[in-house]
Amino acid sequence: MGNSRGISVFVSTTPFAEHDRTPTQWMNAAGWRVCVNDTRRKLTSQEVAERARDCEAIIAGTEDLNALLDANRRLKIIARVGVGLDSVPLERCRERNIAVAYTPDAVTPAVAEFAVGAMIAACRDIPGADRNMRGGGWRRTQGIRIGESRIGIVGFGRIGSTVGRLLAGFAPAALLVHDVLDKRADIAALPAGAAARQASLNEILETCDIVSLHVPLRQSTRGLIGARELRRMRGGSYLINTARGGIVDEDALYDALRSGHLGGAAVDVFGREPYTGPLRELDRVVLTAHMGSCSIDCRSRMERDATAEIVRFFSGDALAYPVPDDEYANQA
User: Fold this and answer.
1) Reduced to 3 states, what is the DSSP secondary structure of residue 215?
2) In the annotation, is 273 catalytic?
3) Is the pTM value of this prediction over 0.70?
């Protein structure tokens, strides 16, 4: 694939090509110099800058790429393995004529299923029961069921709408959708049994048993759920965040859980990762390591899609998944 030789590519996301070697094979066949993140952890912004200082392309995860743009004047394309773009300085890329691609479709099924699983795990305290039993106990916690709950979905794009379709099969008591856009047509397309309608964020917070977040991290959504919003949530309700760290004030969430105001939470994404904060002290929160997209099939497709974009770029072909203009505007 492609005929450009001598290109230098850094793969900052990890793991990479563990279950599908196709991306590596494409790059090797093109004769590129490929360096991968072998640390098995998320790199700091400065580490990315040091390792990719002379690269013309990067296949990136959620690492902050600002330092890379400071250090690297040869960079021509960023291919993001995933859909979130808060770690990519889009306007700086535009000023430097650096192409940016992402993988918006590949991630959806895995994150949507993970979000529903996180709801069940939190609302039935499955991790807590596991820990208790391993300690010699036999605790049978009573929780709430999706089919009896009012559920709020905040953000009804690719992932949020897929979550809605999955939840419809549980026949929830109500499914309330909040989005900055008019989503009535998408809501109408949900399967029968969803009992869905569009609602304000305040109505969702005040009336729903479960609130699931599916918005990107932008200036308008940073701190969207803070102390005031958490106080507004129904007593005993559950918050699910598989979207982005920074959307939820983690200290305020800690206080809301510790006080008993919330019934529980499930959090897969954090403002600083790896997460080492006080939520780890609490039993009523399910914590996972930003792994919503980590199903073998979706992760492999994300890696293939991102690599294919770099191949297209250096072959002189149009990108299949260029970041749209509205993402640049939203980040400004």
Assistant:
1) coil
2) yes
3) yes
